[in-house]
Amino acid sequence: MSFKDKLLSSYIALEDYLEFDSPLHDVRSNAIKIFEEKGFPTKKEEDWKYTSLNSLLKPDYSVFSNKEKHVELQDVRKYFLHEIDTYKLVFVDGVYSSFLSETTHDTLDVCLMSAAMNKSKYKPVIEAYFNKVAKSDSLTALNTAFTKEGAYIHIPAHKEVEKPIEIINFSTGNEAAMFLQPRNLIVVGENAHVQIIERHQSLSSNAVLTNSVTEIFAEKRAYVDYYKIQNDVETASLIDNTYISQERDTVCRVHTFSFGGNLVRNNLNYYQNGEHCDSTLKGITILKGKQHVDHNTLVHHKSPNCESHQDYKGLYGESSIGVFNGKILVDKDAQKIDAYQQNDNILIDDKATINAKPQLEIFADDVKCSHGCTIGQFDEDALFYLRSRGIGIKEARALLMYAFANTVLESVKIPELKVRINKLIANKIGVSLGFEH
Amino acid sequence: MLKIKDLYAGLEGKDILQGINLEVKAGEVHAIMGPNGSGKSTLASVIAGKEEFDVTRGYITFENQDISELDPEERAHKGIFLSFQYPVEIPGVSVTNFIKTAINETRKSKKLDNMPAAEMLKMIKEKADMLEIDRKFLSRSLNEGFSGGEKKRNEIFQLAMLEPKLAILDETDSGLDIDALKVVANGVNKLRSEDNAIVVITHYQRLLDHIVPDFVHVLMNGKIVKSGTKELAYELEEKGYDWIKEELV
User: Fold this and answer.
1) Which of A159, B10, B163, B229 has the fewest beta carbons closer than 10 A?
2) B-chain residues within 8 Å CB-CB of A396?
3) Which pLDDT tens digit goes with each residue over A152-197?
4) For residue B158, which residues of chain A lie inside 8 Å, CB to CB?
5) How buried is residue A99: exposed, middle or buried, by Cβ count under 10 Å (0-12/13-18/19+)?
6) Chain A closest CA to B244's CA: distance in Å?
């Protein structure tokens, strides 16, 4: 039985547990129809030209976890940014772990998708927002059909959340191969501020495939600062689908740090629905071995007087493969927008590959759009400069790689996270630079 | 200290340096002057070990050891320092982190441990004060957005931190106003001793008022065509280079 067939029959099994009269039931059954019709994307599709899911679909994945496994805090502590100074929503093999989570609060809803979908208190929010910005491509639809668990975060208007919220998905290797589909819904009310850190982490070397969907709604004047840490083991793969809907005067920033995993595909989509939106998308990718990371971004400028800033940097070693496909779409009415996209790549080894494709579709006539893409090796003059100061060639290269990646960190607003990522970068580059970070 | 014998070197099969002979002894200051394109910067780069230049004939010794085959970092470890005419901008690495790395890498080559942090900080403060460098400047990215003068001052700061035996200053005066020039020259002079040597490469005599040379050499078409004392520099300032050309004919 193919994985697709397995999923379709699993859906039938899931339906037995669902409430048929719930409005969500229609959403689910429409979604599974889309998936049934389209199936998994193949390289024939323009958006998937450089990334094949074939090898990922071979293992016999468990779609639902059958056994529960307890995870000790001491084993996973290192994956948390902070033990006390963050809220935490922790999922183990797709199931919420109240033991590892930390959600104490009075004025905001940091809870579970499963709870939100079943309690009448949350019904209006679910009905107003759930699946409203997500696209109906087959992978998103697959996630929608199976929506069961994930983070539900609702920040009320004018609330400034004082601590970052961590969303962490652990997989324990309980099953020989696990398929996970977390579903997050984040609604940030008018003039509310929130910082979120998302991480997927496998704790074993068993195969894991995660197909995650996150919908983020920023109401007017909201501020959303989102960080994705992708530093998983080499048997774990991730398809991340993130959709951001911005109302007027909002700022939404997403930083993606892709340092690990087998295959990672990031579908990051922004929709600017009101004037004076600011969208920032930044990423650092550092790969080696046969790792493959594909950044597929969309910024849809639907309104005038908005800005978008994209800056992705990649360092590719050994036979790793990087893809950057950045699309900027400017509607006819979206005048006076300023869209900027920059993608810089360094190929460290001869066998490494980068496929870069900027796409600009502009239908307005009074806009500022700029994009740049560089693919290079090391700057020989810079290397000579460092070496002439006594820095050996290996360290000089490392210092240049570190410097190259480090410039993206300037916009990280959580100091502790910045230090953490900085260390990860130095560690990935693999040379002690003889100075504190 | 430094001996250059019959040196031919260049790019892609074309020799820019055409038989350089030069000896610099400890305690001496040499100035190399010459018109644009005469090979001054090439000479500096070749001594520092820039790999894109091929040495086709002759050799360079430093403290009686042939260094022609050494990597740039090995030459630096031996005590050769080049102050760049055009220092490279490296965003993402602060001046402080850069200099710490350079010092500790040099110590590592001598099998020494890293310099203790307190000692390093004290030294940084001392040298920055001597060159009238603002502390904020040190946390900025290396050379990124620096003015011409700031870049040169930063080169001399590195020189002061690394305390080399042989310092080659390539057009250190360009981009400096007269006050900055005095500060920089003063910094260089403080490093002068019996044990080290300085080679100043410049177009103009101006810098030589402040860093007074023992010898002045004129480089033309890849050759040292005339050598003399500091008076030669004044003569060049006054009369230009044409009279030397005529003298050669």
Assistant:
1) B229
2) 73
3) 999 999 999 999 999 999 999 988 999 999 999 999 999 999 999 9
4) 389
5) exposed
6) 34
A386: helix, strand or coil: helix
Range list of H helices, A303-392: 380-387
Domain segments of chain B as ranges? 2-248
Distance CA B85, CA A304 (A): 47
Which of these, A409, A34, A47, lies nearest to A227 by C-alpha position?
A409
Task: Give residue-wise pLDDT tens across range A31-40.
Answer: 999 999 999 9
Looking at the complex, report in whole angstroms how far the Cα of residue B221 sits from the nearest Cα belonging to chain A. 24
Instruction: Give contacts of B 15-74 with A, CB under 8 A.
Output: 48-52, 71-73
Structure-block tokens of residue A410: 């300037």
| Residue A315 in contact with partner chain B when CB distance is under 8 A | no
The confidence score (pLDDT) of residue A154 equals 94
Instruction: Tell me the per-residue pLDDT of B23-65, one tens digit each, with 9 for 90 and over.
Output: 999 999 999 999 888 999 999 999 999 999 999 999 999 999 9
Residue whose structure tokens are 């970070």? A437
Cβ distance of B88 and A382 shorter than 8 Å: yes
ipTM: 0.95
Point out the residue among A382, A393, A404 whose CB comes nearest to the CB of B73.
A393
Which is the CATH superfamily of the domain at B2-248? P-loop containing nucleotide triphosphate hydrolases (3.40.50.300)
Cα–Cα distance, B236 to B217 (Å, whole number) = 11
Q: Which residue of B has its CA nearest to A382?
A: B88
Query: What 3-state class would DSSP assign to A283?
Result: strand
B154 inside 8 A of chain A by CB:
no
Nearest to B215 by CA among B66, B54, B33, B20: B33
Using a CB–CB cutoff of 8 Å, tell me whether A157 touches chain B: no
Domain boundaries, chain A: 3-397
Token representation of residue B213: 């040379």
**How many Cα atoms occupy the beta-carbon half-sphere of A381 within 13 Å?**
7
- How do strand B54-62 and strand A353-362 relate by DSSP bridges? unpaired
